[in-house]
Structure formats: C-alpha cells, structure tokens
Amino acid sequence: MRALIAACLLALSPTLMAAECPAFLDAELRKLHSADTVNLCDIATGKPVLVVNTASHCGFTPQFKQLETLHRKYQDQGLVVVGFASDDFRQGADSEAEAANVCYKNFGVTFTMIAPTAVTGSGANPVFQAINAQSKPPGWNFYKYLIAPDGAVVASFNSGVRPDDQQILSQVEQLLPARP
Please, which residues have CB within 8 angstroms of residue 89's CB and are 6 or more apart in sequence? Predict the structure, then answer.
C-alpha cells in the first residue's frame, strides 16, 4: 500500500510542486483600510508575484497608475500584483484612510494593497524579510520585486524603473505560463 501511495505521489509531484506556496507568503495580512485579511498563498500559489513597497506622498506615487495597468494587462495570465503601504521613508499618508483614498480613488487601484507595515530593517513584515534576504532591501518607495511561483526573487527594480518599463514587462512575460 505504501508503495502505491509513493508511486502516486511521485507521479503527481510536478503538479504538487507547482501548486506549493512559498512559506513566506503563507501569512494573514490585513488589507489597506479594512478589517479583512488576505493570505497571499490564497491569491498567489503557482503564480508570479510583483511586490511593491508604496507610499502616498512620494514623487513616485503616480506609479500606482502604471501598476494598475500592469495588473489589468497580466492578471488573467496569472500575474499577481501586491502593494505594501509603508512609511519607512517618511512619505506615507497621515492615516490609513488617506492612503486608501490615494490608492483607490486617485489612482483606481484594484490590485491587493496591504495595510501599512515596515518593509526594511528588523521590523520588516515576514514577506519583506524574505525578499530582503534574497535581494537588496528597498532603498526608497516603489521598489519592485518579481517573485517566481517557487518564491525566488528573480528580479528587483528600483524606484526609477517604471512598472511599464520593458525591463519589467519582459521579466513578467518570462514567468507567465506559455499560451497554447
């Protein structure tokens, strides 16, 4: 019986491996200006993820519009965009309500936004702790990290690289499943 179970698991292992969620994404995170939480494994298992640390009062804040465009362009192909509101660089909104207004009303954000949290240093949230261990920690707002379905940070982009830059688009397209 054990041999049969082992053979079945071995036969299914590529499917199981593709469906595993990286441990650092398996956390309940509160959504921006909401009592609701999201477990990133629920929305990102088996998919590439673009993680961005954001701020409401930064010269790069207009990138929300480009992030939303990227999200809409690739969401049906599997890309997950997640923004982490942060005041690590002292340019966050004075309140979570104001941050939500900037995201949702000013820029029409529909991708997942996480409530304000630290993204640098020892107080960084678990997602950014893992990202920072694999890559350079954010040096400013709107650093972007492209994470493969297996949890590896495959590319990082500083604030000056816009979400619609060909560098990001080509990396995203490489991670998306091939179309039939």
Answer: 55, 58, 140, 141
The strand pairing partners of 39, in sequence order, are: 28
Active-site positions read 58
Could you state, in order of their start, the residue ranges of all structural domains in the chain? 21-175
Classify domain 21-175 at the CATH topology level.
Glutaredoxin (3.40.30)
DSSP state letter for 156: E
Residue 110 has a CB neighbour count (10 Å cut-off) of 13
Dist. CA 109–CA 150, nearest whole Å: 26
Degrees to nearest 5, angle at CA 51 with 26 and 95: 95
In angstroms, the first-to-last Cα distance of the chain is 38
For the four alpha carbons of 63, 96, 112 and 51, in that order, the dihedral sign comes to positive
- Enter the pTM of the model: 0.89
What are the pLDDT digits (tens) for 141-176?
A: 999 999 999 999 999 999 999 999 999 999 999 999
Nearest C-alpha neighbor of 87 from the set 62, 123, 112, 36: 123
